[in-house]
From TrEMBL:
Keywords carried by this UniProt record: Hydrolase, Membrane, Protease, Transmembrane, Transmembrane helix
Compartment(s) where it occurs, according to its Swiss-Prot or TrEMBL record: Cell membrane; Membrane
Lineage, uppermost ranks: Bacteria, Bacillati, Bacillota, Clostridia, Lachnospirales
Keyword Translocase assigned: no
Transmembrane segments: 20-40
Enzyme category, top tier: hydrolase
GO biological process: signal peptide processing
Name recorded for this polypeptide: Signal peptidase I
Family per similarity comment: Belongs to the peptidase S26 family.
GO terms for cellular component: plasma membrane
The EC number(s) this enzyme carries: 3.4.21.89
Organism: [Clostridium] asparagiforme DSM 15981
């Protein structure tokens, strides 16, 4: 008699069926836990601070593995713990502008790094930024973050703790998935 015939001839067991379903549910929960805590980060961008790159009320997915063997780079859009929240429960999504050890100056809406004569090339901005700020001297091991919608973004220019330490960066944003799928660059 084959295995299939043996299985077909066995009486139905509710106990075996329930145990089978419990095993599947426990495995799914374990996989989701590992993915959500060690591989991906899921976040919501509630405001228009990252327009046009990320629209308001959009959900994004980031990779927690992006910075294991490398450092964050200027221009990366990242999910991080908001430095002015002592609980560490508030996540922000912004773009890295200043790297460790750099000086960031904003003059007449243009960003200059380390006293350069040439402003930072920022093709992701929808409109010119207004105003002048700085200089910001980014400490070693920290980053200076700004939103892409500079005239409507409460970013590092306005925070009490203006720099984000590397260990507070959770993930590099890869794509938006709700309400519309879109790769983030």
């Amino acid at each position: 008699m084959s295995d299939k015939e043996k299985t077909e001839n066995e009486p139905f067991s509710w106990k075996a069926e329930i145990i089978s379903w419990i095993q599947i549910i426990v495995a799914a929960v374990a996989i989701a836990f590992v993915l959500n805590n060690f591989v991906i980060a899921n976040s919501r961008v509630p405001t228009g601070s990252m327009i046009p790159t990320i629209m308001a009320k959009t959900r994004v997915i980031g990779s927690r593995l992006s910075y294991i063997n490398s450092d964050p780079e200027r221009g990366d859009v990242v999910i991080f713990h908001f430095p002015d929240d002592p609980t560490g429960k508030t996540y922000y999504v912004k773009r890295i502008i200043g790297l460790p050890g750099e000086t960031v100056d904003i003059v007449d809406g243009k960003v200059y790094i380390d006293g350069s004569d040439t402003p930072l090339d920022e093709p992701y901005l929808a409109e010119p930024m207004e105003g002048s700020w700085g200089p910001y001297e980014v400490p070693e091991g920290s980053y200076f973050m700004m939103g892409d919608n500079r005239n409507n973004s409460l970013d590092a220019r306005y925070w009490e703790n203006q720099y984000v330490k590397k260990d507070k960066i959770i993930a590099k944003v890869l794509f938006c998935y709700f309400p519309k799928f879109k790769k983030v660059v």
